[in-house]
Amino acid sequence: MANVKVLVAKPGLDGHDRGAKVVARALRDAGFEVIYTGIRLTPEQIAEAALQDDVNVVALSLLSGAHNTLFPKVVELLKEKGLNDVLVIGGGVIPDADIPGLKAAGIAEVFTPGTPTSKIVDFINANVK
Amino acid sequence: MEIVDKLLNHSRLALSKAITAVENEYDDAVKIMTEIYPHTGNAYVIGITGPPGAGKSTLTDKLAKEYRKRGKTVGIVAIDPTSPYSGGAILGDRIRMMDLTADEGIFVRSMATRGSLGGLSQKAGDAVKLMDAFGMDVIIVETVGVGQSEVDIVKTADTTMVVVIPGMGDDIQAIKAGILEIGDLFTINKADREGTDKLNIEIEMMLELNPEHVGWRPPINRTIASKGEGIEAVVDSIEAHKAYLIDSGKLNDIRKKRIKNEVEAMLNDRVNRYIDKEVIQTQEFDDLVVKMQSREIEPYSVVDDIVGKVLK
Amino acid sequence: MAFEEIKAGLEKYHAEVEAKLVKNPERANLVPNRLYTPVDLGENFDYMTKLGFPGEYPYTRGVQPTMYRGRFWTMRMYAGFSTAEESNKRYRYLLANGGSGLSCAFDLPTQIGYDSTDPMAEGEVGKVGVAIDSLADMEILFDQISLDKVSTSMTINAPASVLLAMYIAVAEKQGVSADKLRGTIQNDILKEYAARGTYIFPPKPSMRLITNIFEYCSKNVPLWNTISISGYHIREAGSTASQEIAFTIADGIAYVEAAIKAGLDVDAFAGRLSFFWNAHNNVLEEVAKFRASRRVWSKVMKERFGAKKAKSMMLRVHTQTAGSMLTAQQPNNNIVRVALQTAAAVMGGTQSLHTNSKDEALALPTTESVTIALRTQQIVAYESGLADTVDPLGGSYYVEALTDKIEAEAWEYIKKIDEIGGAPEAIAKGYIQKEIQDSAYKWQMEIEKGDRIIVGVNKFTQEEEAPKNLLRVDGSVGKLQAEKIAALKARRDNAAVEAALKALEAGCADENVNLMPLILDAVRAYATEGEICGVMRKVFGEYQPHTTL
User: Fold this and answer.
1) Domain that holds residue A9
2) Which residue of C has its CA nearest to A68?
3) Distance of CA A99 to the CA centre of its chain
4) Cβ–Cβ contacts within 10 Å for residue C148, how many?
5) B12-binding domain: from which residue to which, for each copy (chain A) (predicted)?
6) What is the pLDDT of residue C363?
7) Which of B166, C22, C125, C506 has an alpha carbon within 20 to 30 A of A110's alpha carbon?
8) Residues of C in contact with B58 (CB under 8 A)
9) So what's the pLDDT on residue B116?
């Protein structure tokens, strides 16, 4: 029985956790095991938590505009720790223009405001390794 | 096995992947456990249980830090219930332990109950063994004290601590029935709240009535875990209990009993799975059920028959 | 008055409508009743106790006698990004274009008491607001803006004392004395714990800082609004309208209790308490919310705290249109949403208003989009007629019934929170957070099931090109601020800084000391915000959030 484990985390200083919490609950209701780690985390804390819980997915949420710095940093640290097949997704107030850069840095998909949670569930199911 | 070598060489990634293997029942899980078994038996295992909202994870976080201060490495297995509706779970303990991630001497693993009754205690037990083999000095298993399987898990610990909080009203009655008798020590958390003294007296009274505690009287500590108050005393009590178990020779008995329980559970599990696969899920069995329903045959000789075949 | 006649007529009307519903069905999921009549207000609806007159208890119809017939609300645009230099330009632009007050947005490191060079600040410097590290930045921020002429609102909470001290120090340098300063600090820590997340210290020292500010300002900065008790972020986090005002007023009760406990007379500070509401999408519900909130607060102040002065009982409110209701899809639609939200705030009787820009679901607003948002307020003020009479919806059967309903729901929550032991305890137990989250989840599921329509999101969607010309704040701000801090530390009198910080540390350890003068001394010596908050972190510790899902 291999359940999908998802770490939902907010890197940086942004305290807007409405979206992260709604997504965490929706993922639980879709049958995933969700580890919600709260706000104000460093990329290192997120990567280490992902390692210890051996999660399949890391879902990052950020509304402050610091995504270009912090999202790639999480990916980098995951790789450094040997977690090469973790699916990393991101969400928040993220301009379209930033998305190609984030994808190139290893963020599998970016979900902007207005995305239904079912779309995130579908994406995880289709892409989780 | 490579993964076992790496685990014994302190690879955190290998430890994590090995726990996943037992948790998900991967094919190599049994082989991993077989190979690490000789390297286990060194860690001291603490079980923590109590009602939801008692502050167990915050307390666990603080206890881990106190043990680190005392030079011990700490493994934590934090168990949360799986939703019976969706099969999903919110594993909410880690959020109270996020600053532990900065410490190489600590490893926290969240586990969901996944509705598996007997299987959970075995999986949690295996996770403890893996952390033990990895070299953790102290391993804390933390779980909500509802449901028998969770109680089974903490019962296998060397020291079991029950956490309660004041102001739960009649809840104390429910807890009494279930988990109070398994506590080697009690911690009243959130002890700055009204009702702490009353709760203390209630536990005292209950301990008076319990004849099992000969030679060791469970101490009752008070903490305010969120402020880190009273933590040292709790660790002192755990250590005192450990010393008592060693001096009295009871630690040996506990661990012997644990191995017995584990093997018994493994046997039951194996037999159950075998019967399920070879008997229950067969067409032949379905046919028998139909015949029983129409009263052509009766179940007692059917069971005799099957047992005769299975346990030949 | 033929009340019975109306009742009978109403029954007849409903019966006739119901009979035809199969042929002429109504839309699904409608929350309000079909029709509102005097029956909904009850036979004994008492105008004087429920409504009264504008500027009179219980202030349902507004806090001033003539409302916007005298002066419009303050058009206060929330702004700030990048460096103090950049933000200063935006402020002067807004003032030159008819903005009547300033509203400072600080970046997250500033809001959480970190210098731009702190490792925790990585990636965040200058992003959601302006980066302020020391008095030197604050001097640049208000360069060529006379602080005796403008009223300034600062969205700052945990380190509110530090930023207020910087503002006072800038004024000193301009030759403006503190008693001339007008403006507001948000200073509302309870909603940070519950909904917004920019807390630093645990509740007890945080409440002390707040009462220290109340006391200091009542003597030295008498025109300053010392707190803006905020429902805005509670609503943004997903609460309902009733929850927004109930949780916020419960927070307000906690602040008043803390100040009274600290020995202040209620009428000495209560007149400087202000509130901050969200203007959400449902126009009439929002109008009712504003009206209900004034009624509840005035009763709380009069009956619970025995306030005597009229000013102590008035709920004066700043409003911002709902940021979370802006959509990234078809962003031009947001202009319309903001216009309706503006109408709600104005008909609700707000004292000041920030209107969001259409592109804020995508990035920080450009100058062009900010201008549209400001013009929206001006159109509502000058063209719509909504501001020409006081409380224009007073007497509407629907709005009065809705006002009563929201008031009743708010009292219910306040009672529940009292039973738990007050707002701080309800937050410590996670009760308020859980209520908000449940509402947020319900809202999202309604959208996903199609029970709630958001135009352009789950209906009337269309393919569109990515919007262009978004405002970008690049990473160089962090570097720039780091250089500024290094230069400052080289030129300031470091011995004086150290002495001031030492005095502050000693003050923190003694609960009877008012920290405002000590913070002001440290600010004047050009201690950085991170240094000042660092000292307080050392003594007070940091807040550990209670997170439930």
Assistant:
1) 3-124
2) C123
3) 14
4) 12
5) 3-129
6) 81
7) C125
8) 544
9) 62
pLDDT of res. C472: 77
Asked if residue A48 is part of any domain, the answer here is: yes
Chain B residues near residue A30 by CB distance under 8 angstroms: 86, 88
Residue B104: predicted pLDDT: 94
pLDDT at C4: 92
Tell me how far apart the alpha carbons of residues A26 and A125 are, in angstroms, rounded to a whole number.
14
| C positions 485-544 inside 8 Å of B (CB) | 544
Position A68 in a domain: yes
C475 reaches A (C-beta below 8 A): yes
**Kindly report the CA angle at B11 between B7 and B17, in degrees rounded to 5?**
70
- Per-chain mean pLDDT for chain B: 89
pLDDT number for residue B80:
87
Helix (H, G, I), strand (E, B) or coil at B38: helix
- C540, C544, C547, best to mutate vs chain B, most B CBs in 10 Å: C544
CB atoms within 10 A of CB B102: 11
CA-based nearest residue in chain B for residue C547: B95
Per-residue pLDDT, B99: 87
C243: nearest Cα among C429, C434, C424: C434
Q: Is residue A45 part of a domain?
A: yes
Residue A129 within any structural domain of the chain: no
When divided into structural domains, chain A yields a total of 1
Backbone angles phi, psi at C318, to 5 degrees: -95, 150
Chain B residues whose CB is inside 8 A of the A51 CB are 12-13, 16
Q: What is the pLDDT of residues B170-194, one digit of tens each?
A: 555 655 556 677 889 999 999 998 8
Task: Give the model's pLDDT for residue B172.
Answer: 59
- Residue C428 touches chain A, beta carbons under 8 Å: no
- Dihedral, CA of residue B21, residue B26, residue B31 and residue B36, to nearest 10: 10
In this prediction the ipTM stands at: 0.95
Below-70 pLDDT ranges, chain C: 1
CA distance linking residue C92 with residue B166, whole number of Å: 57
Least confident of A84-98, B77-91, C127-141, C187-201: B77-91
Q: Enter the pTM of the model.
A: 0.91
The number of helices, as runs of H, and strands, as runs of E, in chain B is 12, 8
Q: Give me the sheet containing C151-154, strands edge to edge.
A: C224-225, C182-185, C151-154, C101-104, C74-79, C352-354, C317-321, C273-279, C227-230
Q: Which residues, 6+ apart, have CB-to-CB distance to C547 below 8 Å?
A: A36, A38, B92, B95, C430, C433
Distance CA C283, CA C109 (A): 35
Alpha-helical (H) ranges within A1-127 are 18-29, 43-52, 67-80, 99-104, 117-127
Q: What is the CATH number of the domain that holds A91?
A: 3.40.50.280
